[in-house]
Every structure is written in C-alpha cells, then in structure tokens.
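Quick question: what would this complex look like in 3D?
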Amino acid sequence: MIEKELAGKILREALKTGADLAEIYVEDVTSTQLGFDDSKLEQAVHGADRGAGIRVFFGNLVTYAYTDSLSENSLLDAAHAAASAGASSAKTQLIDLTERKSPLVYPVEKELDSMRIEDKAAILHRIDETARAYSPLIVQVFGSYGERVRRVWIYNSTGLMAHDERTFVEIRMGVVAKKNGTMQRSFRGFGGQKGLELLDDNDPTAVITEVAESAIKMLDAIPCPAGEMTVVMPNGWGGVLFHEACGHQMEADFITKGTSAYAGKVGEVVASPIITAIDDGTIPGRRGSLRFDDDGTPAQRTVLIERGVLKEYMWDLVEARRVGREASTGNGRRESYRHMPMPRMTNTFIDNGEHDPQEIIESTKRGIYIKQMAGGQAELAKGDFVFNATEAYLIEEGKLTAPVRGATVFGNGPAVLKEIDMLGNDLALDPGMGICGKGQSARVSVGQPTLRIPKVQVGGTDEPVEGVMG
Amino acid sequence: MTDYLELAKATVNKAAQNGVEVEVIITQDKETQVRVSGGEVEQLSQSGSGGMGVRVIQDGRTGYAYTSDLSDDSIEQTWRTATELAQVATPDAYRGLPDPQPIPDEDLEIWDASMQDVPTDRKIELLRQIEQATLDYDERVVATQWCTYQDATSHVYLANSRGFGGQYGRTTAAAYLMAVARDADGHAATAFGVGASNFFDDLNAEDIGHEAASKSISILGGKPVETHVGTVVLDHFVGAQIIAAISGALTAESWQKKRSFLLDRMGQTVGSDMVTLLDNGRMKRGLASAPFDGEGVPTSATRLVDEGVLQNLIYDSYSARKDNRASTGNAQRNGHRGMPSLGPSNFYIQPGNMTRDEIIAGVEKGFLVLSGMQTGGIDPVTGDCSMSAAGLWIENGEITGPVDGVTIATTLNDFLMNITAVGNDLRMMPLFGIIGVPTLRVDHVTIGGS
C-alpha cells in the first residue's frame, strides 16, 4: 500500500487537467504453482507482481497508465501520463481520504505457510499413484497445486480508500485412459477463497478416483446421437450454461451498447416462472467473492431474475456513471494493475426449484444426461451457447443407460431460460475452479440445481434420434 | 538507461553456483490500448511494464520464479526462491539448458521502427475509421462492441549459464471489433473483424470493418438444415480452431506423454494429399516469429505433414534430448511470467491454388461455415471434433441463404483425410496462437440440425 499523504499527492496530480474523478489502484500478488505430469513434479513456480494503475475520468473518456514501481516518482509519472491523455474543465477537489471497512469476513483458517512445500508436492504424488493404481488403462496423470494471495488498495478523489485481500487455493487433476486405440480424458478439481483448510474438506485421492472412473467409463461410450433432444443438466458446474449464455448478457457494458438481448428489458418476463437467478459477491469461501470490487465499491448480492422477471444488470463504476446511476452493483473487476476494470460476474447461480433430481431423470423418456462438462462459450446479441460434455449418458425410459462421447450441446440462452421445465431442489455451487475469460481472466463461481431443457440441439456424429420429449 | 542484457548476464553469474544451471529472461514492453464507441474514445491506456524470470536447474530439477520488481533485493530474492523451489521437483536427467548456437543474422521483419513514433491521434483515427466502415456497410449493422486498437513494442533479453546471451525487439499492432446486426424481423447476429501485423501500416480499416459487417449481416435470420452427413467449406475463423487443435497433437511432448490422437503414426498417411502442415518460427512478418525461442535456440521451419504423410514433430530442448535429436526451436514463453513450454510458432496449412469462390462453385450441396463456437469439443487427445456453426447454404455452387443453429461434427482423423480442396487465401489468425489457414473444403461431416 502507499501512505495516505502520498496517495493524496498523486490524486491531485491526476486531477490537474480538469478530470472529474481520479483513482489509484495498488496491487501486490504472490503466487506459487506446482505442476505434476508424467509421474514427475515438473513445475515449481513462484511469482511476485506488484504495481499500480492510475485511472482518470473525463466524462465518458477514461485514461489509464500503470507502473511496476510504487516509488513516488513512478506514481507521479503515471498520474501525469493519465492526466495529460485527456483534458476538461471540471474543477474537482480531492476529498480527504477515509478508509472504509467491510463487514464481510472471508476467513483463512490455515495460513498458506502452515504446510511445507514438500507436503504440498506430496499431494500431487499421491494423486498420480492413486490414479495409476486404479487401473492399467490409465496411461497418463497430471495434477497441479496453486496458491495465490492478492492484496489490493483503491484510493479515489471522492475520498474513498478501500482494501481487499483475497487468498485462493486450488488443486486440479486429470487422467488419460486408453483402450484398443480409443482415448478418453477426464479432469476435475476443487478450490476456493480460503486457506489450507480447503484440504480438510476435500480429499484429492477420492476426487482422482472419480476422475479415473469417469475416463474409463467413457472409453466404452457410443458416439452421441445428433439432433434435437431433451437434456438434463447437472447441479453445480452445470451453472456455467447460465453464466455464459445469460449472465454475460446482463453485464452492463453489453447493455449500454445495446449489444445484449436483455437491453431495455428490466421488468419484463425473460425466463420461466420457476427461474430466479442471482449474482452474489459476498459468499464466504467462494472464488468470485470480494469485500470491495476493483473500483472500490462494496460487494453485494444482486437478484438478476426473480421468478422469471428481469430485475437488474451487473454494473461497474464506468457503466454506472455512463447512465447516471448512483452506484454500481460492485461488479467492477480487473485482471491486474495493468488492466482497467469492467463489469464481471462474481458467484452467479440459478436458485433452487422444487423437483427431486432423481424424479427429473425418471420422468424423461429419452434424452441425454450431462454428468460432467467442459466450460462453455456464448455468442452475444443472441445468446447462443455451446458446451461440450465430457461425461454424458443416454436417458432411455427414465433410466441412465449407455455413456455417449463427443456431445456438443448448442442452444439459445434466453430461449432455454424460458423453456426449462423442471428445476431440482439440489442447488450447489461448482467445486471452485472456474475462470472466466472476457478479454481479462477472472476467478468466478457458477451454480444451479439439476435442471431439464425439453428440447435443445445436440451435436454428435451418430444418426439422429426419434422423439425428444419426456 | 539500464543495459538489460548485462543485468540478465550478471544475475546468471550470481545465481549459477555449485553446478547449478541458470537462465534469466528480462522483458520490457511498451503498450498502447485504445477503445472507441460511437466515434468517441472510451479508453486510452499507455504504459510500460516488464520484469524478470529466473529458471534454475539443479541435478535435473527445475525451479522458476519471477518478479515485476527489478531492484537488487528483489532480484536476489527471485533467484534464491527459484533455487529453493528446484528442491521440490522430481529429478529428470533430460532437464537442462540448451548449449548456445549461432543465431542466423536475418531480418525477420518483426520490428516496425516507426511504431513508437505513430502519434496516438493516428491510432485513434484508424479505430474510428474501422468503426465507421463497419456501421456504414449496411443499415442492419446497428452497433459495435470492443472496437479496440492495441500495440506493443517488446524487448526480450535472455542469458544462460552455458554462455548464451541474446536480445531482440518485436512490434505488434492489432485492431478488432465485433459487429452487431439486427433486422426488421428481430433476428440478431454478431461477427468479428480482426487485423494484426508487426507493422502499423499493414492494418486496413476497411478490411477489418467490412469483414465484421459482411459476416454479421450474411447470417441474419439463418435457420437449421436437416441433420445429415455432407460437405462443409470452412472460413478462416472456423478452420483455425481445428488446425490449432491439430497443432497440439504434433508436439513431441504430446507424444512422449501419450496425449496425441496421432500417436505412433510417424511415416503414415494421416491426411489427404492436399494436407501439408508447417511450423515456421522464422516466417517474415510472422506474429510469432523471433530469432531465437524461449530458451535461446534458433527458431526454424519444420514440415510436419507432407502431402498427407506425417514426417516430423516440433521440439523444445527437453523433448529433443529425450528423443535424442535436435530442438526445432519451439520453446514458447509467456513473457517473463512463464517457464518455457513447447508449442507451435507460426503454424499453418500450406495454401492451394483455388479461390474461395472456385471452391464454393464446385460444391453441389454444402454448408459454408462462417462462425463456430466450441469449448473443448475439438480435442487433440481423443480426436473428437464438434462445434456449433452458422453460415451459408450452398446449392449447385451458389449461395442460397443463411444457416444457423446447427452443429458440425467429425473426428480430427476424418477431418484431415476428407479435406478435398484447399484455398489460396492463407490467413494467419491471431486468435488461438498464430494459426494459418486458407478456405478448406471437407467432406463427410455430420451436420446436426432439425
């Protein structure tokens, strides 16, 4: 961090050319990453990144300059560079900086240095041994351990001074299985915004056993049928569908530009009445949680859709100022001090419904059950989405039957939200390894209960199936 | 002014004690980013940034540490941390630094000496022209998003304890935007336009704007076709996604770790005779070109697949030592923050001699795919290949109307074997690494629709 007096001096320099708001963002990140592959601990990497960005607002123009050094001269140079890239006649005066406190508590019960690095490495060795012992069909195993502490300080000319500290631990793992020339791979992992107590709540050897089991099952998978089908999505990570196909469309930068299908639709019915969707940046332990966002706005819980009706978008400071809103929703996030914030999701999920998840499968005559899936991607404007299933099964007469491979599910987010006809009562957030890429990367969580889409496009290489409805 | 190569060498000398091998990279970048909307500048960012990364190898064990702070204390802490971290790694006799080799003295045309002198106003003006060209193209183009210009002048300084010391500069300038089209019937569509080069003057506002605009309006109101197995013609944006996945199956690492759908098929026919795949780290004006790779090995041109026959893989020094051969200079690096890792440089399928129009004219019934999305659906390990697709329907060699809401699926094996026409319109796409593709015709693809 920097001293209050220095921050004031830099903000005054940044306001010199008539800006209406000036901001300093200071960041200090340390990280350790261990990478295990091919039965060897191959990567052991430590990183230290420290720097600051100066952002200056002239109406809708935002100028920015950053520096790797926190020396007074470097900060003043950056402030001067950002200030001289614009000019206005606002006579904004710096208001005395007062530190804001957050009531939010995100505990780190076991500090990152309470375990030796050799013992962290040993977890990865154990993952490898467990997977290879599980079956000779497992031909390759990889795993990684990552920890990261990100400290940020935000100062701006309205007198704001805010600090956040975000600690993350995550473990990822995967296998390749091979039989008679057929290969399958499977991944999983867990993580959170917490300390090493993560390892008390998750057993890596149990997870890698599931991963190995999944890859081996998929070796016998039949090609996925192509065509329109009923699809049952899993709870937890299945929420990536809402994140990609609908969540992004509720981010304010796509609203103010008119790009999004949801622009101008607050108060309208945009989903089935069983759907309530929430972005909540205040859940302890979750990757997307913040005390203050990277604009210095307190994190909050925002109901996006309530029983089918669109209620609110996700705003950052820039977009809120553009439309004259009093406050943002605390969704301004940035990848690092080298980036400007933009509206981003935090922890985003579809809330619980009423159905027993088992009942959802049992009442489906024919379709596909997605058990595991890779990330998703969506097109803006229309909200078309695609994701690839990594473990999926045919549903026949209400029962899960053959595993299917190569399934790509493709549909339209806004349309699917209206069509979802069964929603489970088993809401879960994902295991904690989600990263969202929107030009900048951000740690996020997604979630949902088990849900059913009556008809959606499934791509595969096999012949089409008949009959889509349950 | 700091002499960064000398700083890298001095750090190597300090850290290289007791038989430890050390490599130090320093990067120094200057970047400009501008975003325009509605003719107005929204964002303007201009800054310099850099840092140091230290790789230490002791008894075949590797540790790595990096820092953005180049003070003496920070540098010492960084190499000491890397040395400590090496103790955690598993010994591997093939780990080691490459011996220094002469770097060919050749102008790769990756340095635009005038880039730093281009006034910011001219960059803004270019971006305004791109946005205007997009919006003026057709009244159905109603908005743009992410209308962005960015450039960088980057310097890399690399030294190691085997005596290598080298540096180079590279400039890149890129502009892109997304066009949003809507029609009177309420249909919507989006498409990207992209331009990127080592030279500022290569960026053409009309090309970028018209690409985004023409694609977005052409697919407006598209409908699914019936599910069937048929012929597709792939645009650069689509072909590049598939070729990028195939490049991942042609690294020596993917073979040594048994993660390639092409595993153990060296010398065999893996594609039609129209398929020649190359990786060239010395391509003139190649966005991934450099005189030496991420560990100081001279870059080279490698023919991986020659008229359908698998001939070679790409190597870094580790995988090369393991296979008892020479590195192809393919150690890539994500600035100073990453260890070197094996990957393609400028990777492309050799162009043929047909224009896109000639390829389309030869298709009786087929699907010209202009955009596609996938997330892990194209897998270099399993060889699965499926994605969502939008584009235009072809009937008797003519475009008849838009198609949307469908999937295309094949396997990467079948994809390579069923390429029946290769265009002359090679484009190096800066989207998924630097991947070059011309228009491709592929037969026997499952098109999943209604």
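Answer marked as accepted. The longest strand of chain B covers residues 141-160.
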